[in-house]
Give the backbone structure.
Amino acid sequence: MYSSKKNVLETVALLKAHGITHVVLSPGSRNAPLIQSFTTDPDFICWSVVDERSAGYFAIGLIYQIRRPVVVCCTSGSALLNYGPAIAETFYQKLPLIVISADRSSAWIEQMDGQTIPQTNLLQSILKKTVHLPEIIDNESHWYCNRLINEALIAGVHGDAGPVLINVPISEPLFDFYTEKLPNVRCIRSVSSDAPVCIDDFINTWKASRKRIILVGQQGKDESLTRILELLTNHTDCVVLCEHLSNQTAPSFISNFDVLIKNAMPADRTPFEPDLLITLGGHIVSKQLKKWFREHHPAFHWQIAASLTMADTYQSVTNLVEANPVHFLNRLFAAIEPETERPYTTHWEKASASIDQPDNTIPFSDISVTGAFLRKLPSHSSLIVGNSSPVRNIQLFSLPTASEIFCNRGTNGIEGLLSTAIGYALVNKGLTFLLTGDLSFFHDLGGLWSNYPVSNLRILVINNGGGGIFHLLNDLEQSDSLQQYVAAKHDKKTEAWVKAAGMNYLQAYDEVSLEEGLETFVHSGTKESIVLEVFTTIEANKSAEIAYHSSIKQR
Ligand SMILES: Cc1ncc(C[n+]2csc(CCOP(=O)(O)OP(=O)(O)O)c2C)c(N)n1
């Protein structure tokens, strides 16, 4: 029988799924659940070597001969340190040694309990990767544990091979060996760019899938990517989902999926659910999409990127592909037949087309101001948007053709936004537009103090008197601290700072003054940069949100 510890079972099952066969065991009680599980399973060839220092070198001998990864497994405390010389040897020889150390739960490290040392920190400089598993108590810790083991096993053999450490905390009781079968586990397959990607399996999966989505995250403009995505969605049954931050636009791409998921999908979303998901690029803003995809995992999820770093955003990756996405998709497209029937894509297209952009009937608010601005924005514009509401609200509207859009979305920080825009403008020939909230603007006031005169910047500040986004979060509304502390309510204007920085200042507080202000704002004739500050209220913002979203729900 196997141990009943779930992180032990996950480790052993994943080692088996990744094709590991040889395990060198050193004695101990903390690692007894691992020992018991390895020796129970007929697929493992287990060896017993008492001294961990010898065990490490014994494993090196096995690796020399079988040319595949080998596991060494020890108890907690100094036992792990005894692997040190063998770990160093495999690090410098680039050999795939998988070190599995049992540990106490983190709470007991350095509490003068027996056999504890900070196991994960000590050997890091001679390990390719170290992971410290959680003890599995719920779905999230289960996914986390699975992801970490997959990551370590992939790192051990990717590119130059090398030793990896999987540290497994195991709480007492240690000796409950009542599990009959190993669990089914998600084994993430990886394809490395070291060898040409063998595309056959991918073609077969593509052909066998009926509902395919390609989701493109944040990235710069890339016309070759746009071309292949258009070919795929126009000639096969495949939906391309991309937000504005992906800088991918074509009539057949769907960008309003956040609103669609929130308001316009039926309770039974099965017809929309993909069975093959292909992800490229960086961050996705849509909370709705993340939530939905995390609840419904496709049978296959390929993550394609130039380097093999996994972000398991939807908890569903099945294949990591290290390849240039354009090359990969071109090869795929060349190998598949065009499809004339596109029921899945048509289904998505119809639903997407049924959603109107916010119109003039909603109150004067952050949303309506964003719409008015984007309608006036010239084509081929450079637009930088702030985090918080700006990056979300632009998604409700279409962008002018050929515009390029940027956002500091890597960490979602509100800091440094004026500095980013000024840096961009100074090396940009045309106008540079920035759409920002008031807190983000004030946060980076220091950025306005610049030795470089900038004349081509247009900053639209939507001043709603604080962090407006926090007022749109239902559960926060009851909180006494919302106004003063969470949203940092204030009544400041940007005017004095803007003028001190030598920029022109305009303001608007309703449709008429906004329309007037925007006329000057988008014009390239002026010699100074311009800040247009538009004042909105929290109440109007809430009404606008409700009015827009309920108008879509009622269709
Ligand atoms: C450096 C940093 N501090 C705090 C936050 C948390 N935060 C997220 S949105 C936000 C409010 C932003 O307010 P504002 O720029 O006025 O935009 P609005 O919410 O009104 O659209 C804050 C403080 C953050 N993202 N980055």
Remarks:
- The CA atoms of residues 368 and 505 lie 21 Å apart.
- Residues 386-389, 412-415, 437-440, 464, 467-469 surround thiamine diphosphate (CB under 6 Å).
- The longest strand covers residues 97-103.
